[in-house]
Every structure is written in C-alpha cells, then in structure tokens.
Fold these 4 entries.
Entry 1:
Amino acid sequence: MQWSYTRKYQVKAIFDDFPETVFLFRRIGDYYFLFSSRGGEYGPLPERRHYAVMEELVNGELGTIEHYRNRRSVRNLGVS
C-alpha cells in the first residue's frame, strides 16, 4: 500500500492488488472510510470484502484503527 494526504481530511491510496486504481478515503469523526475510486478499468474490480480490508489497512497505518473498529455502524450490528 502506498498512501499520501490530499486535501483536508482525505487520504489517497494505491494497493498492490489493484495498482491501476486510486482510492480516496475521507475522514469521518475519528476514522477514515472509502469514499471513491477511479481508474482500474482494465484490471480486476474490488469487491466489498476488499474495501473492508483497505479501510482497516488505512486506519491501521494512520493510527485510527480503534476508532474504526468501534464505529457506530458496527456497534449497532453487534459485529466485532
């Protein structure tokens, strides 16, 4: 994974499994979530399970993983 900050509260990342796609993560509260992606028309398309792994990787790298794991949507579902 390669990542860099873009505008305020945003992170741009490229992952080894999808090298032709740029993923944009936005900060909401105290963690980052996948907001959009572009490129990758000729490579494999990511699935929802890939998005969850990407969100965990980015939040782990930025030190916000505990906030990501304790977000409201997960607490309401009872998922850990």
Entry 2:
Amino acid sequence: MVQEHAVLEELRQLAPEYFRTLKHSPEKGDYVVTLHRNGYQHLLETISDLLKLCMVATEEGLEISTDISRLNISVHNTLGLVLRLLPVHESEFMDMLRDHLLEE
C-alpha cells in the first residue's frame, strides 16, 4: 500500500510536465487547445485550408477553381496543424502510467 502511494505521488508530480496539449479551463469546466498563429492572416489561411479540403472531400467531380487553388499546400498545412494537435507528451505519460499500473 505504501508503494502504491509513492507511485501515485510520483505520477502526480510528473503529470503537469506531460499533460500539455489540453489546458483545463476551470471557469467553463472544459479544456482548451491552444493554436498559435502569427496573426489574423495566418488564422484565415488555416481556416481557408480547412474549408478547401472539406470542399474537395465533399464534391464529386469538383472542378479545381482559383478558390481551391494550391490544394497541395492546403493539405500540407492541414496535416501540420493536425500533427501539432496530437497529444504526444500525454501519450508518453500514459506509457509510464501503464508500466506502473501493470507492474507485477
């Protein structure tokens, strides 16, 4: 039992270092993901990329117009955004947690 308390305390101390992707918002009781953009233009480009991909994904036989030009850049930017949203640090912590919980 004493060892379990020590492990639990260790995990509590490590948690803030690893739980970085979602930030708790006590006022609303939910979590926030921070998305850093260089300004409004960068934000609008990100939104535009997401919209272009949705348009292409939902339209059969869509003719690529100037509104959906440079689609490869939109795909690249969107995939980069998704990569930044992956909870990588949290997964490291979950592996540590699993190892502690499944110790024999």
Entry 3:
Amino acid sequence: MASADLSYTPAPAVYRVPLLGAIARELAEGDDDYPLYLILALVSIWGLAIFFFGLPALYLPAVVASPLMVVVLVAISRG
C-alpha cells in the first residue's frame, strides 16, 4: 500500500496572478539583486511615460498617492 505524500504545500494565491505572480515569486525565491532591477525597471517605465505623455505622467503619481498619504497621516495621528 502506498503512503500519501503529505509534504505538499500549495503556492500562495499571489503566485497565480499572471503578471504579479512572476514578480512575487522572483522576489521570494530569486536572485538577491532582483529588487534593484525591479526598481530600475519601474523608474525606466516612468521615464518613458514622461517622455511620451509629458507633464501628466510626471505629476500623476503624486496625485494618486495623496489619498494614501491622508490615510497614513490619520493612522499616525490616531496612535
């Protein structure tokens, strides 16, 4: 009679998301230099967006991040 292999652990759900899964898997299990390459790629994409779309691509991340900063300030003030 064969025994069941109980050592299998399913992968986290984020690994099954098409684009984010590969990034999350590489961050968790990959090369130590990957975060640097990821930041460099994101900055390059932002630079290309500024080149193609101009000023809206430059200031839109700050506009999008402002509600997040309000939430952070409220959380800080609440203690």
Entry 4:
Amino acid sequence: MSADGGMADAQFVRRRSEAAMPGSCFEGAGGVEVRQFAHETSITKAFACGKKYRLSEISLRGISLTPHRQEDAMTRPQNPQTRMMVALILGVTIYGLAMGTTYPLLGLLLSDRVSGALNGLNTAATGLGLMTGVVLVPGLARRLGAGRAAQAGVGLLAGALVALAFLRDFWPVFAARMILGCGAGLMFIVAETALNAAAAPERRGRIMGVYTAANALGFVLGPAMIALMPDRPAALLLVCAAIALMALIPFAAVERPVSRLVVSGSGRHIVSALTAFPLAFGFLFIASMIDAIAISLMPVIMLDRDFDVSQAVLLAAVFHVGLVIGQPLIGLALDGAGRRRTVLGCCGLSLACTLPLVYGSGMGFWPVAGLMLVWGGANYGLYTAGLALIGDRFRAEMLTAATAALASVYALAAVIGPAVAGGMMNALGAQGLFGAAAVVYLTALCGGLWLFRPVEPEWQKHQIR
C-alpha cells in the first residue's frame, strides 16, 4: 500500500503541477498550492484509520472549478451591474424632464414681469441649489447611504415642482428653484459617481455618452411639451412632479449597490480634485454654461431674432435633440479616437456653429435649426468627455469628490451663465451673445491645443502616437 500510495502521490503532485499552469481549468482554484495538496495527502494516509481514500475524491471537495463554473463566476456580477446602470440612467432621464420643462417655461413666464437681467438671476437660483446639494451629499451619504440620499433628492425635486405650479412672484419662484436644484444635485452626484465607478475603462466613453443622451432627452421633451401646451403652465409642472416621483422606483431598486459603490468624501477632496485636473473642469464649465443659457434663455434670445414663441421654444428643443443624437457618437469617439482629440473636436465644431449665428441675423428657421442641432451635440460633448476624464483619473472617495466638484462647476456655470447672458441681452442683443460664445470656444480651442494633455487609457496610446 505504501509503494502504491507513494507512486499515486507522485503522480498526483505532477498532475497537479501541470494542471496549475496558465490556461488550465485548475488555475487559481481555491487559492490552494501543490505543496498543500501533498501535505493533505500525507495527513490522510497517516490518519485514515485503514480507510483508503481515492485522490480523485480529495480533488473534488470544492477545490477545482470546471471551465463552465469559472465562466459563470466571472459573468455573474455583470448582470446586476448592468441593471444598476440602466436604473440610474432611467432615474436621471426623469430628472432631465423636470429640468428641461422648468428652465424655459419659467423663463417665459417671468419675461413679462421682470427685466432680462432679473430673469437670468432667477434662473441662477437652480445653480445655487445645486451648490447646496454638493454641500449636503457627504453628510447624507454617511448617515443615510448614497442610495437613500438620491431618493431624498427625488422628493425635494418633486416638492419644488408642485410649488412652482402655483407660484408666479419673483422671490417665491427663486426659493422653489433653489430647492429644485438641491434635489437635482443629490440625484445626479450619486448617479454619476456610481456609473463612473461601475464602468469598465474601455467602455466608459460609451456609457457616459448614453447617460448624457438620456439626461438630455428630458430637455427635448420639456420644451416640446411647452410648445404643444403654451397656455397651461401649472398643469405641465404638476405632470412633471408626478413623473419625477416615478424616479423613486429605479433609485430604490438599486439602493444597496449604489451605496456600496459611492464612497463618501470630504470638502477638502473637492478642492484637491479641482486643482489636480483644472483644464478638464474648465471644459465642463463651458459646456454647462452654454447649456444653461440655451435651455433657460434660448427662447428669449430667439424672440429677439424675430421668431415667434413656438419657433423660439422649438429651437431650444432642437439644440437638445442634437445633444441626444450626438452624445452616443461622442462616446464612441472618446473610446476610439481618444480623449484629447474628441475634446478639441467638440470645441472646434461649436466654434464653427456659433460664428454664422453672429453674422447671419437674417437667417430663417431651418438654417438656424441646423446649426442648433450640431451645436447642441458638440457643446455637450465637452460634458460627456469631462465625465469620462474624471472616471479615468480618480478612484474611491476621490471619485466622489471629483463628481461633487463637477456638480459645483455645473452649478457655478448655471449661476454665472444665465445671469451674464441676461445682462448681455439687454446691452448687446442676441448677436453680441453669440459673439461672446464664439470667443469662449476660440479661447478653449487654443488653450486645449497648447496645454491639454490628459492621460489617455492604455488601449488608446498606440492610436494616439
């Protein structure tokens, strides 16, 4: 028995060593090494009390995995992760509908009551609310969990929409829009952090392109609803509140995985993220500022260009149709052509769209609509690129802090952009406003050509070179 057993031990150890080679079905199984198997066999021989154990039985005790089981173990987490991403994107689409309705609708409602500068200041209230959300996210995420913090944001958003349905005076509307912005901030800081943390690097651009496109879909449907029902603002806002509450369903479904992915940061990490990647946040600022101006004041700007109310609102919608169509393409470019080329391409294309609007004051509806379509996609491509760049650069609590920094930049742009644009409308009209946008894009393009050098993902480096 000892001779046979010794020969079996030797053969088993040899087979085990060969099986542990890369590519075999035993590779890494259970983390057990060859010498551990030999030790287990010797103990079995010493203490078996006359019972003969076959080595094949020992190897079957939860030690080896068949190729099918290995494949299942590798793919099992992916389906819940995909479901989580879909749920987050669906929830933020509902947020986009609420914001896409309130920005142009309230701008039109206040245009007859206050000056352009005060109208822009009222629009900036949403940005101030977003900043408040940035301050509240770390504490709420620690106390409630990130998933529940996002659900609290849904509640604030819906409550603000109900209030806005009945308010028409400047300061009450201002306060309600701050609450709306705070709720929106809680939602999309959590959603963007979780999406970036879950996204594979080689697919991050495409995932962020789908996310921003879904977000923009609400900004298309909102102005379109206003164009169809221009005389029923209260009913529109109440419908938006009801739809916003539906976001509780997808956010509640993924509460636990989201809370695990989003690691709470602190205020000092936000400043560190900004200083670590200033140009990326600069591009985000430009995209957010132009988008806030477009969705809030574009109808008013186009009224200055002698378009009627329905046409003016539809042009704002067309701007965001371009955003929806363009972002998946921008995402493909980010993963294929590289981050830097895509960012500079978006700046150049936006500049090419704004220059004709400066000099073509007599352009008809369809030529302007064509420019708006391309401009919307190219401008917001800077935001999509910024999300991917942040996901490439930061991890764990720094990723949460960087997303909060992004929200701060977005909020600051939402405050500054409409306020400055409203004042420029009074002083220079629509032509001067488009000229200022062209100067911004030209500056960004020149600065990006000389200074912007993001760390391209590994699979793209051979293409960039």
